[in-house]
Amino acid sequence: MIYLAINTSSQEQFLDITEQVARALLTTAVSDGICVLFVPHTTCGITLNESCDPSVARDLEMALRNIEPPGLRYAHAEGNSAAHLKAMLVGSSVSIPVVNHRLCLGTWQGVFLTEFDGPRRRKVMMKLLPS
Amino acid sequence: MIYLAINTSSQEQFLDITEQVARALLTTAVSDGICVLFVPHTTCGITLNESCDPSVARDLEMALRNIEPPGLRYAHAEGNSAAHLKAMLVGSSVSIPVVNHRLCLGTWQGVFLTEFDGPRRRKVMMKLLPS
Amino acid sequence: MIYLAINTSSQEQFLDITEQVARALLTTAVSDGICVLFVPHTTCGITLNESCDPSVARDLEMALRNIEPPGLRYAHAEGNSAAHLKAMLVGSSVSIPVVNHRLCLGTWQGVFLTEFDGPRRRKVMMKLLPS
Lengths: 131, 131, 131
Fold this sequence. Notes:
The structure is a homotrimer. Chain A has about 130 residues and is an alpha+beta fold. Chain A has one domain: Jelly Rolls. Helices cover about 25% and strands about 35% of the residues of chain A. The first copy, chain A, is built from 3 helices and 8 strands, in the order ββαββααββββ. Chain A has a 5-stranded antiparallel β-sheet with strand order 1-8-3-5-6, with helices on one face. In chain A, strands 2-7-4 form a 3-stranded antiparallel β-sheet, with helices on both faces. In chain A, a hairpin with a 2-residue loop joins β5 and β6. Chains in contact: A-B, A-C, B-C. Chains A and B meet through α3 and β8 of A and β4, α2 and β5 of B.
């Protein structure tokens, strides 16, 4: 297992971690398969989306903020239930094909850690499954 | 393949199945890899979220009920299209790292079967992929 | 790796690709494991949902169109940020158990490519991970 440590810098943030993942992949014993990236957290997620134009990630942050139904009376005393909701909608893992130690991402795709209750120190766990 | 049988007890329910999954993992031939949990259903999902404070799961149930756009005229005659929508948003599988027969979940994470059209008898299929 | 080529025919479309995936699975060297289907795109997704009654897929298309918060001022100049949002909510991959070259889908489940910015030529990458 490879562990990536990521520091987020604001309360809500789509952080492009593609380069960090790509570098870690160069060191794996296996060269081909599926790379699983997993976040052991409940108020941040991980997803793939457009990384070329950074305004897409900002639009996604804004849309998620507005997708949360307004006026809900949450029971959870910590007050971050909306962050738990957004983490669930985004998901806790991604699976990406790997060929010859390289992520087979599409032209516009990048890997994003999605912070919803930061800033915090976050962890991404990474395993390459041989195919 | 390991099959878990789960009985849900109400129409909408986030059911914590972490213990059942953890017990099943003790019996696998492989000890390390990625555990894939899959639901062969279209009106329930599976997800990871906070299991320590049970009010989080109740908040997520409530938020999902309210995320569905109101006033839609669904075509599907069975009347459970909203359940299909919520199952899709939550997702039909999770992938969790496993080390030495143990789920590598974060401190607050638990595995939840998310029922949206119950109560029913549900099935979870489980495979441990070696890494 | 197996590549499936899919032509979508409208701007938003849930396209049932179950048969195409099932046929490709008959040719794999491995017979049992987890089939990972991945879309290298940022404005389409892939998901599982009911394929028996085609009105479910149309209901899901409609609900997703209405889940997008109205009146947002997106920054991304291409004007397709809503498509990026829906692709993220649906997800970029699915993982399905396979036994003896056959998808272990539930009675009502089918595999759908979900187009949100078509019509386009799309690609699905497929790997069978041995278990």
